[in-house]
Design goal:
alpha+beta; BirA Bifunctional Protein, domain 2; 2 domains; 7-stranded mixed β-sheet; two-stranded antiparallel ribbon; 12 helices; 19% strand; binds phenylalanine
Amino acid sequence: MSLRREIESLEKEANELIKNADSIESLSSIKVKFLGKKGKLKSILKSLGKLSPEERKEIGQLANKVKEEIENLLRKKEQFFREKAIQEELKKDRVDITLPPSWIEVGSAHPVVSTLVEISQLFISMGFSVAEGPEVEKEEYNFDMLNIPKDHPARDMQDTFFLNNGMVLRTHTSPVQIRTMLKQKPPIAVIAPGRVYRKDADPTHSPMFHQIEGLLVDENITFRDLKGTLKIFLEGIFGKDIGIRFRPSYFPFTEPSAEVDISCTVCGGTGCRVCKDTGWLEILGCGMVDPNVFEAVGIDPEKYTGFAFGLGIERIAMLKYKINDIRLLFENDMRFNHQFKGIR
Ligand code: PHE
């Protein structure tokens, strides 16, 4: 076979191989095969020496042309593979920007929590600090030391959940008074927010609800201090125009005791269904700490006096946000909860 023919068939072979190559790797083996040091073209060029000068020039030019051509084809094909790889990568990562985004629910404070925080902040601004106690409580702290002995009818006032181990689910936050006074000597100014439990369930009663207890003990504390403190508190929550009245009442752990009413937040005092036509709403219990309670915790009732109060947070939240059924607060129906977005 003449060298020219050889070169031409080599060109054809290379063309064919490059056309059918399926990867960058196979391109590099084609490159070695034709253009490498031991490649086909090299061995042809080596034999150029045997030719006449004219032939050498002609064949040499042809060989160079074919070499360039093969290089070109290889380069183009390589570029093609690189481009293809990039396109595949892009396809894999493609996001459909026309898809609607998944919705992120923005939460909001529960009305009980925001009411609790608001009340706490008011008392904290008056110098009270926050105390806590357990929800599973000693009967002694929930009752006995609060001047409610075993045979006392007041035990029936609060429908208690008794536990097998002799403990109770606390029926009020008042045992935190005992815990605080056992630990701390006067002056004492604490509020104690938390969950309490009673066997009770209807539109205005839930077996679990929240109370805030208040306790202030020092020398020369009088009923006047109690009235002033509660006035600041109630006007802070319900506004300066709210009517406030104290009614004599009874609690075993306070003497004297009172219940506090505010003018009806629905009718403003003229009488409606919510206030049962009285114009007033009962809002909290309070009184001067009973000397028997001081004695139970080892505080001298001759030296110290104090006041205490307790209120239901749900009740305040219901009046504040005009909620007519306490159970709505605990059902976690998002249609209800979302109405309180934006309250602090
Ligand atoms: N513990 C009482 C209740 O749950 C409320 C109260 C607290 C009354 C403190 C007087 C003093 O009903």
